[in-house]
Amino acid sequence: MRSSRGFTLVELLLVLALLGIIAGIAIPRLSGAKDYARRVGDARANAMALRMALEGASYNTGYPAAGSYTWGADGTKPSITPALNFDLRNASKMNITLEVAAGRQAYTITAVDAASNKQMARINHLGADVP
To answer: Which residue in 41, 53, 55, 65 has its CB near the most CB atoms, within 10 A?
Structure first.
């Protein structure tokens, strides 16, 4: 009898079919993760930009009056004193909300994806992430 070495054609085709199925499942999931990471990064960048604008404007005058202020994905801006030099960046699809606590000593900035209404980032007056 002759000993055979290597794989048969059926074995090779089976492995290729399994690799195709795995790739068909994994590639769409990975591309979705990339888009999600981009949206989270955009949200964090906008929240930090608002925080820097708020800290710069409030250096002499303090934080704005207690309340909730929202910058909309559609371009709407709140009327706020002191005036802030802040616009949503990177054609953001986020709604950014600034909530100033009573006493004007603390605030929280929340970025929410306008399409899915999912919170993407939230930071407080210390720059720390808030769950």
So the answer is: 53
Cis peptide before 28 (omega within 30 of 0): no
- Residue pointed to by tokens 């929240």: 47
Rounded distance between C-alpha atoms, residue 51 and residue 127, angstroms: 8
At 9, is the secondary structure helix, strand, or coil?
helix
Query: Six-digit token pair at 26?
Result: 């994994």
The letter for the amino acid at 2 is R
Cα–Cα nearest to 109, from 60, 62, 63: 63
Per residue in 54-90, pLDDT tens?
888 778 778 888 899 998 888 888 888 877 888 887 6
| DSSP per-residue letters across 12-74 | HHHHHHHHHHHHHHHHHHHHHHHHHHHHHHHHHHHHHHHHHHHHHHHHHH-SPPSEEEEE-TT
- CB burial of residue 101 (10 Å; 0-12, 13-18, 19+): middle
Closest by alpha carbon to 69, among 33, 107, 38? 107
Tokens 């994994």 locate to 26
